[in-house]
Predict the 3D structure of the following.
Amino acid sequence: MTIAKVIEITSTSPGSFEDAIRQGITKAQKSVNNIKGAWISEQKVILDEDGTIKHFRVDMKLTFVLDD
């Protein structure tokens, strides 16, 4: 029998939403094994005082399979 668990993380990048996703998953893989998928629940931008985009932020849910 396979059991999976879901965790929520937030990641930011100055470059793009895609980069924020990649960085978040890469960082999570350093402490969580068997990550099988991600669901992006929110995408937001953080703006500078002048209104330009400073960071791209994603909130995501990662699914991973528990070890036996």
In short: The chain has one domain: 4-65. The chain has a mean pLDDT of 96.
